[in-house]
Automatic annotation (TrEMBL), chain A:
PANTHER family linked: SUCCINATE DEHYDROGENASE CYTOCHROME B560 SUBUNIT, SUCCINATE DEHYDROGENASE CYTOCHROME B560 SUBUNIT, MITOCHONDRIAL
SUPFAM superfamilies for the chain: Fumarate reductase respiratory complex transmembrane subunits (SSF81343)
Keywords, alphabetical: Heme, Iron, Membrane, Metal-binding, Transmembrane, Transmembrane helix
CDD domains the UniProt entry points to: SQR_TypeC_SdhC
Classification lineage: Bacteria, Pseudomonadati, Pseudomonadota, Alphaproteobacteria, Rhodospirillales
Annotated organism of origin: Roseospirillum parvum
Complex formation: Part of an enzyme complex containing four subunits: a flavoprotein, an iron-sulfur protein, plus two membrane-anchoring proteins, SdhC and SdhD. The complex can form homotrimers.
Protein name: Succinate dehydrogenase cytochrome b556 subunit
Keyword Transferase attached: no
Pfam families xrefs: Sdh_cyt
MF (Gene Ontology): electron transfer activity; metal ion binding
Cofactor(s) the protein requires to work: heme
From TrEMBL, chain B:
Subcellular location, record wording: Membrane
GO MF term list: heme binding; metal ion binding
Protein name: Succinate dehydrogenase hydrophobic membrane anchor subunit
Annotated source species: Roseospirillum parvum
Function: Membrane-anchoring subunit of succinate dehydrogenase (SDH).
Cofactor: heme
A Pfam family this chain is assigned to: Sdh_cyt
Subunit and interaction comment: Part of an enzyme complex containing four subunits: a flavoprotein, an iron-sulfur protein, plus two membrane-anchoring proteins, SdhC and SdhD.
Keywords: Electron transport, Heme, Iron, Membrane, Metal-binding, Transmembrane, Transmembrane helix, Transport, Tricarboxylic acid cycle
Length: 143, 129
């Protein structure tokens, strides 16, 4: 293994590096790669979709409460903040869905390796963008 | 010594003091993931279809038994899968046993509460509240 280049970020770990010990994943010193970005996005969107449960609770809760309460909530969901939240939720959900299928594919042993992960990553990015664009287009057309 | 008295298979089966591994968690996260592929596609479609719907329209939508059934199934599988994922996230980022235990108890408890609340709401709409 080659000597790691000096980086101010790595200064606190100088001792570890000089002893040839491995370093834990460290965000600032990673060179950007599509695969790592897609991986962390899977986790971030996963947490986001769970947080979106609050919106579903407002939606179904106000509907169950009656027409007046429901109309107030619809006012919120129709506002800029509400529309933004729904767009973000749908984009996150569709990403986690598409990315999740990629993970399931790995679970059955398909597409392992650097090249396979890179290629399926590009497919994922394209599928997500198209899927989100189609869903948003249908949503705005119906609005 | 005690270790040599046991066959490797016996040791693997017993899994030491924990008596269980992560296989169940792993399997259930995948099982719910597979179920959620069609369910979430349906749910996203349902949200779009009911965007800006009136109270009468939304009541009619969940008045359809299949819609109510799919919604309840999405709630159950979605929250189970959500807890599975959040527990891993907690394990990765929350340090300190007290903090971790508090959140590891709070997250499933809140998810169960949210799940029951949502199912009750669906039933109220489905049964014409």
């Amino acid at each position: 293994m080659s000597e790691p280049r000096f980086s101010p970020h790595l200064a606190p770990y100088d001792n570890q590096l000089r002893r040839g010990r491995p370093l834990s994943p460290h965000l600032q010193v990673y060179r950007f790669a599509l695969t790592m970005f897609l991986s962390i996005t899977h986790r971030v969107t996963g947490v986001g979709v769970v947080l979106g449960t609050v919106m579903v609770m407002v939606w179904l809760g106000t509907a169950a409460a009656g027409p007046e309460t429901y109309a107030a909530a619809q006012g919120f969901f129709g506002s800029w903040v509400g529309v933004f939240l729904i767009l973000a939720w749908s984009a996150a959900t569709l990403y986690h869905l598409a990315s999740g299928i990629r993970f399931l594919m790995w679970d059955i042993g398909k597409g392992f390796g650097v090249e396979g992960a890179r290629r399926s990553g590009i497919v994922l990015a394209v599928v997500w963008a198209v899927l989100t664009a189609v869903v948003w287009a249908i949503g705005f057309a119906a609005w | 010594m005690a270790l040599k008295m046991q066959s490797p298979l016996g040791r693997a089966r017993g899994r030491g003091a924990a008596k269980s591994g992560i296989a169940h968690h792993w399997f259930m996260e995948r099982l719910t993931a597979v179920a959620l592929v069609p369910l979430m596609l349906w749910f996203v479609a349902a949200v779009i279809a009911n965007f800006g719907a009136s109270h009468a329209e939304i009541s009619a939508f969940f008045g359809q038994p299949w819609n109510a059934a799919l919604m309840i199934m999405t709630i159950l599988f979605g929250l189970y899968h959500g807890i599975s994922g959040l527990m891993i996230v907690l394990g990765d980022y929350i340090h300190g046993p007290a903090k971790h235990l508090t959140l590891a108890l709070a997250v499933p408890a809140l998810a169960v509460l949210a799940g029951i609340y949502l199912i009750v709401c669906v039933l109220i709409l489905a049964l014409g509240g």
